[in-house]
Design goal:
83% helix; mainly alpha; globular; 4 helices; 112 residues; single chain
């Protein structure tokens, strides 16, 4: 498989998983509050990373990078998933889809 096909496949799978994530979030929010859902989502992600680190070894991180990593972790995934979950609690997937189509070109200069 050539590089272009691998890239297309990887992006397609990413798009499918993100779409399923939104649907899964909508379903989960019928049983859990938004912050309980975020808590469980982060616990699951932490366990996956722990297994990965145990398998491949923990990365070497300098003490000067700890502050940068903390700020990055606060915004992504911390605040990102908080706002995503709270917004999916309030809006439909149809509204999310059209909101993305309208605002992505304005903020990121990306056009379909």
């Amino acid at each position: 498989m050539n590089t272009k096909a691998k890239t297309f496949l990887a992006l397609s799978l990413t798009m499918i998983f993100w779409g399923l994530s939104f649907i899964g979030t909508k379903i989960a929010l019928t049983s859990f509050t938004p912050f309980i859902y975020i808590f469980f989502r982060f616990i699951l992600a932490s366990m996956c990373f722990l297994l990965l680190f145990l398998y491949r070894g923990f990365p070497k991180i300098s003490t000067s990078d700890h502050k940068k990593l903390f700020i990055t972790a606060l915004f992504q995934p911390g605040l990102y998933f908080t706002f995503e979950t709270l917004s999916s609690f309030e809006i439909t997937s149809f509204q999310m889809f059209y909101g993305t189509l309208i605002f992505a070109p304005l903020f990121f200069m990306q056009y379909p």
